[in-house]
Each structure stands twice: as C-alpha cells, then as structure tokens.
Amino acid sequence: MITRHVLSVFLSALLACAAVAAPNDKRTNRIDRPTSRPYQGDLSIFKGADREEKMKVQRVMDVLRIKAGSNVADVGAGSGWFTVRCARRVGAGGIVYAVDINPDAIRYIRKRAQKEKLANIRPILSKADDPLLPKQSLDAVLLLKTYHEVAQPIALLRKLRMAMRSGARLGIIDKKGTSGDHGLDADVVVREAKRAGFTLAAKHDFVKEEGVDYFLVFAIR
Q: By Cβ atoms counted within 10 A, which residue in 84, 149, 168, 185 is the most buried?
C-alpha cells in the first residue's frame, strides 16, 4: 500500500520533471553571459558609402529569400539602413517592420521612410524581450549587428519564432567577440537559437572581406 508520504514525494518529482521539460518555462530563457550596451549615438554614422558593398546586402537578401511581396522584420533597425533597402526590394506588395527599443531610432526611421516615400515600412517601438510583431506574418527576419546587444536573446527569439511563417528564415549577422565587446562567438548564437526552437540552416562569411563578421541562417525547428 502506498503511503501518503510516498505519494507526495512521487507527485513532487513529477511536477519537477514537468517544469524542466516545459518548453515555455521562463527559467529556460536565462543566459549566463554579458551583453553589450545598445548603441544610442548619432544614427547618421551608418550612411557610409561603401557599407552596402562591404555588407553584400543584396546577397544577404537573396540568401534570406527576400523578394517582391515578402514581409520582413529588421530587428534592431537603428538608422533603418537595412530597412530602406529591404523596403525597395519587397515593393508595394510587401512590408518591412523596422523594430527597435530606442524611441530616437523609431522617429529617425519614420522620417526617413517619409522622405524616401517608402510607405511599406512599419516602425515598431518594441520591448527588450518582445518585438511586438504580428503572429505568423513574416517570411524573413534579420538581426544586423544587433544580437550581441540583446539583453534577453532567447525570449526575443521565441517571440520572433511565433511571428514567422512556415518556411521563413532568420538571419543573424554579427562580429566575432566575447559578448561585452560588441561581438559574440557564433557558437553561442547557435546554442541560444537552438534553445529558442531554431535549427542552423547555413553559415556564411561573405559579409566582410576580412572575415571578422559571420552570417548565420536559421530555420524553425
């Protein structure tokens, strides 16, 4: 006969196991590494004439399968450098969500979109752990030199996953480094993305000739 004490211990063990296994358990969002302080300086510095060639932005969009009519999120959009280029590619039939936690960046992008007559840009002032994007609305997502600054990367990635359609691709371009120096080892990004429900689909190094940056492409697992 099972005693009340034994039954209580058994039930407690089951509940503990369930908590560990639960994919949405907030405790699994925790990371044990520093993050870089988000950039809050002059946004005009990102207008370098040679940046488009160095970053191979058109090839990046090809890899992410961004085309006319695509819905895309530029997470950590900053000055909107990628946002406006993507908006021209997706055209009037597509949408580019310019997501940033910095109100100044959102105001800057809104003015830039108006000046360049790009009505398909949707600026979003997001939360640190939530991009506030519509569910199952995206064909592609890009975090361009942003991931190392994200304070809650796993929580953010899980929210992004919910916003992505079946077959959508997530691109992360960043610099090799050690978290606190505005860079992050690619293996760390891969491990964290896996925890958020993504699988690595491809890894590229064409975004900078000197090989400092990497370009990771993820699919929904």
A: 168
